[in-house]
Amino acid sequence: MHNPTSSELDSPLHVAYLLKMFPRLSETFILNEVLELERQGVEVQVFSLMPPGDGKFHGSISELKLTIRYIPREKPEAFWARLGEFEPDLVPSMDRWEPAVEFLRKYRIPKDLDMLLRALIIGAEAKKSGVQHIHAHFATISTRMAALVNLLYDIPFSFTCHAKDIFRVTVDRELFRDLVAKSSFAITVSDFNRNFILENTPGVDSEKIIRLYNGIDLNFFETPTEPLKTDPLEIVSVGRLVPKKGFDHLLNALSMLKSGNINFHTTIIGDGEEKTRLQQQCQGLGLDDKVEFTGALPIEEVRRRCADSSMMVLGCVPDTDGNMDALPTVLLEALALDLPIVTTTLTGCPEIVGADAGVLVEPGNPEALAKSISTLANKIQEGGIDRGTARARAEQLFDLSTNVSTLRGHFLKSAFKAQ
């Protein structure tokens, strides 16, 4: 195995990210990761299998230097025509097609011809532009596509797996094990995740499964100097309005707080399939004057709203299909803003909060959630919160620059091993 020298580790690196959709408002962790790689001198390009869907972007998207190539589904003849435009040496020999086709057949991967043709285009474009390593996020279509490109062109790849691609009962464990085997390495974002993968994927190569926390740009989050508010108590909760975020339990907890005559205001930031139902629940609980639904907001506005809050509350619960939050980015952002947290004991949340950055409660228990919010509010009012504790934890574990530097090192080792 080739271990790169210090000069090789400092040399330019060309990486491609293969993603289902980019940019995406709800996936700030990917945007932050790519921006930091560019800041660290890595040349990055993105292959996106879908164009962005909602037209909403974070302001930091303008800082990107990279090229985004969209490779959407097309008619087969359109792909054949594009392949014919490449130099002959950019199209793989037929002996490389067989294992790619066998991979698609073995796992009954949907739209197999479309997958194969798009992998050929992506691989040819990547090879032409000198890509040394491909990285995907989520062990779903993007990672399967990266594996196909690897089979066709021998470009090494890796992937980061997060939540739905690990926890859902529908996850094909044999396919997951094979993706790890074909990859240079596989990142996952919490110790809980890594242990879950090893326990539920018989035969998986444990040495290839690396725990690396998502990082956040700490320079983006200035720690507020004003005291935390208590009258009214400003509660903020951020996330897609989907069942696993537990917003229904939060609303029930807020109803209990109202009955206890606590003066509070809650801001819920995010959009999703549960929006109408949650608003109806809010109205039914008589909380319309206490809760504001803002919809999805750019990260700059989320930062402002959170900085003006007393605490971050996120009531994560398991979904009916086994899906769970893995390492909620908003909780990392709360740490960076030195904001105390109330959340549940699910997955990576205890790794974020630790012993002194907030309070953990069992999932799906509104009474416990209400009690913990009240307890933390009293602690804030009595001056019992050590300011700087949460921020220090963010600096220790979740610094974007440090964590992306580690990721860059893994990319370099993979690229030089392939030489």
Number of helices: 17
What order do the SSEs take from the amino end to the carboxyl end, as H and E? HEHEEHHHEHEHHEHEEHEHEHEHEHEHHH
Helix content estimate? 40-55%
> How many distinct beta strands?
13
The rounded Rg comes to 23 Å
- Can you identify the CATH superfamily of the largest domain? Glycogen Phosphorylase B
Gross morphology is: elongated
Widest sheet: strand order? Answer: 3-2-1-4-5-6-7
* Strand residue content: 15-25%
User: Could you list the spans in which at least 5 consecutive residues all have pLDDT below 50?
Assistant: none
How far apart the termini lie comes to 11 Å
CATH topology of the largest domain: Rossmann fold
CATH architecture of the largest domain, please?
3-Layer(aba) Sandwich
Largest beta-sheet characterization: 7 strands, parallel
- In the CATH hierarchy, what is the class of the largest domain? Alpha Beta
The pLDDT mean sits at 91
Structural class: alpha/beta
Structural features, described:
This protein is an alpha/beta fold and 419 residues long. The chain has 2 domains: 6-215 and 399-417, Rossmann fold (3-Layer(aba) Sandwich); 218-397, Glycogen Phosphorylase B (Rossmann fold, 3-Layer(aba) Sandwich). It has helices at residues 6-9, 28-39, 76-84, 94-106, 112-128, 141-153, 164-167, 173-182, 191-200, 247-259, 275-284, 299-307, 329-336, 349-353, 366-381, 389-397, 400-417; strands at residues 13-21, 42-50, 67-70, 133-137, 157-161, 185-188, 209-211, 233-238, 264-269, 291-295, 311-314, 341-344, 358-361. Strands 3-2-1-4-5-6-7 form a 7-stranded parallel beta sheet, with helices on both faces. The longest helix is centred in the C-terminal third of the chain and has 18 residues, at 400-417. The radius of gyration is 23 Å and the shape is elongated. The termini are close together.
